[in-house]
Design the sequence.
């Protein structure tokens, strides 16, 4: 059985729909900076959280509820999204050089080559 989310006002519904591609490209994550680029207000974000469209997962990062993955991969994805809070995924991926990359034990664990023993995630700024 699928739970139905409460209806939003028409303007916020349209803004929520506008974010669908970004959410899909970022494993359900959405940052406050990206929301600002969609012209969402702090009140809009509060309504989305109150109505369970988004849940806070880190500073300035929210996520659609129910979208989770493995611990290592999920931590690396969250770190990558949080590192570029004002940029859309396409902008980051189209850059000549990456801005952040997964490194160390995190990279090895994602590829099944190491056990997770240290703190995660490990990112390098390029």
Sequence:
């Amino acid at each position: 059985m699928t739970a139905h989310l409460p209806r939003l006002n028409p303007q916020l519904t349209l803004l929520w729909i506008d974010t669908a591609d970004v959410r899909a490209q970022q494993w359900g994550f959405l940052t406050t900076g990206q929301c600002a680029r969609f012209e969402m207000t702090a009140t809009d974000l509060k309504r989305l959280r109150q109505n369970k469209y988004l849940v806070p997962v880190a500073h300035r990062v929210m996520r659609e509820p129910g979208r989770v993955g493995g611990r290592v991969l999920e931590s690396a994805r969250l770190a990558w999204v949080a590192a570029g809070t004002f940029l859309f995924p396409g902008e980051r991926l189209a850059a000549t050089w990456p801005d952040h990359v997964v490194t160390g034990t995190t990279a090895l664990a994602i590829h099944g080559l190491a056990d997770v023993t240290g703190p995660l995630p490990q990112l390098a700024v390029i």
Q: What stands out?
A: The two ends are 45 Å apart (CA to CA). Residues 55 and 62 are 5 Å apart (CA to CA). The beta strands are 29-31, 55-58, 61-63, 100-102, 123-125.
